[in-house]
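ok, trying the design again with the full structure, not the truncated one.
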């Protein structure tokens, strides 16, 4: 069984955000976007870097890439439940659009920007669909007239994915089976139809050997931080006291001070960024 959980953002970042695994990222993207948007090649804009992460320059472990046709992608794996993730997703989409315009460039040079958010919690109103796509449509006609076709936002909710191995027909089915059942897979023992997918086999082989001793320690710390965060929030909810919930947020923020920046902690806890800045003094 895979000892590394690919749903943990630090592991996801290295598995799909490393130069040697660009084919895995491209396969994942192409399993999600429409046929006319299939990427032929991609360039990583913020590749995995352990020194950058340790220096606090990579506090948000998203993956940014651009394909040969000029389309931009932001891919994020989110484990901890965030009831305001829609606002965060829109912010990172808008930020990636803004970053495309260099000095002297004009608006018509903006390219299609696709935000892909893989969530390990239930988020959208749909009770059954694990893949929901949002675009800008004309409310009057109820149609997508492609006037604003540079916007595309995907939510993929892993906990809604319940297909058996015999039901894995599409590439996205196979990728989600890998992400949710990595603990069942071992190199040399991969069930059909996963074993017929070259990229899935590479991912299974790569996931356990991709960390050195230092990276494994960072991964374990990240796992512990996520577990602590979930435990603190669950305890606060169980008490059902507003004061307890507020204190839980503060305790969570305190645990995250060494691993995340103030803006990200504020987004995760709901605390004011100025309050978190004061905690550092």
């Amino acid at each position: 069984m895979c000892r590394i959980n690919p749903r943990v953002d630090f592991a996801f970042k290295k598995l799909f955000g490393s130069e040697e695994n660009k084919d895995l990222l491209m396969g994942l993207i192409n399993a999600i976007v429409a046929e006319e948007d299939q990427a032929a090649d991609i360039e990583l804009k913020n590749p995995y870097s352990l020194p950058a992460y340790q220096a606090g320059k990579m506090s948000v472990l998203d993956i940014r890439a651009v394909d040969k046709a000029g389309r931009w992608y932001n891919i994020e794996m989110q484990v901890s439940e965030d009831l305001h993730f829609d606002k965060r997703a829109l912010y990172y989409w808008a930020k990636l659009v803004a970053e495309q315009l260099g000095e002297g460039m004009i608006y018509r040079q903006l390219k299609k920007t696709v935000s892909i958010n893989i969530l390990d919690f239930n988020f959208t109103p749909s009770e059954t669909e694990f893949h929901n796509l949002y675009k800008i449509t004309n409310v009057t006609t109820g149609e997508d007239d492609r006037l604003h076709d540079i916007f595309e936002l995907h939510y993929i909710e892993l906990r809604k994915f319940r297909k058996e191995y015999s039901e894995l027909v599409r590439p996205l089915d196979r990728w989600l089976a890998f992400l949710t059942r990595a603990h069942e897979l071992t190199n040399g023992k991969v069930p059909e139809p996963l074993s017929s997918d070259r990229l899935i086999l590479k991912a299974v082989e790569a996931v356990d050997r991709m960390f050195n001793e230092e990276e494994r320690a960072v991964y374990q710390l990240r796992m512990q931080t996520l577990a602590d965060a979930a435990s603190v929030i669950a305890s606060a909810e169980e008490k059902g006291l507003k004061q307890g919930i507020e204190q839980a947020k503060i305790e969570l923020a305190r645990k995250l001070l060494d691993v995340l920046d103030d803006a990200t902690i504020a987004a995760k806890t709901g605390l004011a960024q100025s309050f978190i800045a004061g905690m550092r003094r």
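Keeping the full-length input from now on. The mean pLDDT is 87.
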